């Protein structure tokens, strides 16, 4: 029988995923001692882990190269691909926010605002919903610089502690939404392997619920 393939990203989310999967009885010893390998296996449970970039998790899952993915809600909102979002893992918590210098004015006559961001889709959707016509400037590096150097009026970015904003003299103008890691599933995989994937979803949801109670 074909293995269930799970796409993960390296780093903090991978570390959390290992703890979670081990807790529900999946062998992650290959994953913990991966070296340079990108495909790791749990032969007993017939599960494969693949390590990819966060933006690629969605592509692998949407096209069925992976059955399941674990990725941040920020990536889901920006890319808008086609799959099931099944569990909020309640980790990697932060917010999407509009930030700028304290002198920023939300409505300033007829001047069209310039917004710098790594997340043009999220920014565009937010300002459209608010009835504001803005110019989006896509950046890949430190967006905090943009208002300081007068490249933009404000930024849309992920904010975890707010320390980087403070250190650069910026403040949060508006909170867009909460962000956390999510588990996603390929639509065809859910039909073809419903029993095994549904069982995994239930165990993971129970793990999340248990840990949330412990934390609170």
Quick recap of the structure?
With 216 residues, this protein is an alpha/beta fold. The chain is 37% helix and 28% strand.
* Sequence stretches where pLDDT stays below 50 over 5 or more residues: none
- The SSE string, one letter per element, is EHHEEHEHEEEHEHEHEEHH
- Count the domains: 2
- What is the CATH-assigned architecture of the largest domain? 3-Layer(aba) Sandwich
Instruction: Name the average pLDDT.
Output: 92
Helix fraction?
25-40%
* Order of strands, widest sheet: 2-3-1-4-11-5
Strand content: 25-35%
Question: Can you identify the CATH superfamily of the largest domain?
Answer: Periplasmic binding protein-like II
* Structure summary, number of beta strands: 11
CATH topology name of the largest domain? D-Maltodextrin-Binding Protein, domain 2
- In whole angstroms, the N-to-C terminal distance is 41 Å
How is the biggest beta sheet arranged?
A: 6 strands, mixed
**Overall 3D form:** elongated
